[in-house]
Amino acid sequence: xSSTWHILGAGSLGSLWACRLARAGxxxxxxxxxxxxxxxxxxxxxxxxxxxxxxxxxxIPAEADEAHAPIHRLLVAxxxxxxxxALARLAPRLAAGAELILLQNGLGSQDEVADQVPHARCIFAxxxxxxxxxxxxxxxxxxxxxxxxxxPLNPAPAEWFSxxxxxxxxxxxxxxxxSRLWRKLALNCAINPxxxxxxxxxxxxxxxxxxxxxxxxxxxxxxxCCGQPQAAEGLNEEVxxxxxxTAANYSSMxxxxxxxxxxxxxxxxxxxxxxxxxxxxxxxxxxxLRQRLVDNLQARGLPSx
Length: 305
Ligand code: NAD
Ligand code: KPL
What we know:
Layout: E1 5-8, H1 12-23, E2 28-32, H2 35-44, E3 47-51, E4 54-58, E5 62-64, E6 71-76, H3 80-90, E7 94-102, H4 109-116, E8 121-127, E9 130-132, E10 138-143, E11 147-150, H5 162-166, E12 171-173, H6 177-197, H7 209-225, H8 229-232, H9 235-245, H10 252-258, H11 269-278, H12 284-299
Parallel strand pairs: 1-2, 1-6, 2-5, 3-10, 6-7, 7-8, 11-12
Antiparallel strand pairs: 3-4, 8-11, 9-10
The chain binds nicotinamide-adenine-dinucleotide (NAD) and ketopantoate (KPL).
């Protein structure tokens, strides 16, 4: 089986992983959206990784998503709403026994992808690392964090897992990946939408702690109902710790809205509200928050699904 890391999406996290794997001598190949993006990339010839003030250049080979060679290992590094459509196009290229690593935040996109590729192993990841793109084909490493990876259907670690340590990508294999993803989803639901609605940095929510508390109480109820009691433990306290620790930051959803980009609402608050509905739980604060956010996005002319 080929040990090449195919990386779908040369955005922030995809580029961050690609550069670190390439630096460690791993075979890496970028899959770009179309021949135009490929031509633009080839004109530059590689990706630049900026860590603190230092920039390093990596001439990583790339292809457009219409190439034909088989794919054995694929890091899916696009936004949650792009993941399933991207995989629908790539599915015919996946070799028998192919493994996918799904970096998407939130929940829902992983199952959408798995439905497209029933014969591949889908490994879910939850990342607290931070990166952004100051320009095309450049990635700035903005925040040290951690990555948890796991497969809800198979507890055995992937055979390539040691590649991550060799590449300096901090990661741990966990059998509780769903609990990690639910916990992060709950944190994001309690913080991100309110930062958009109150037009503030995370620390601005210290003025709105009663709203945050009410959301945490409903989110904890939802987590229990969805069989994730561990993800509910101490949720309110952790949300408050994150608000304080990231007081000067703007949440990822705030930044998406400020830059006029589509948000991942459908896979965060939307997923939580749909799960509540499925369980017959009436979570009025959460549903009211979702409706206010949808109205806010629509008023800005942004997608609200
Ligand atoms: P991004 O928008 O920077 O990058 C996504 C890239 O995927 C874009 O370059 C886009 O053109 C590309 N893409 C989309 N469809 C494609 C296709 N069919 N073929 C090829 N390329 C395609 O996004 P990001 O910030 O890297 O986020 C990726 C995921 O990681 C999101 O779910 C996000 O929530 C999560 N995440 C991001 C960070 C971060 O700091 N950036 C941290 C934690 C989690
Ligand atoms: O993950 C985050 C985000 O902005 O998406 C934090 C900082 C935890 C806020 O929810």
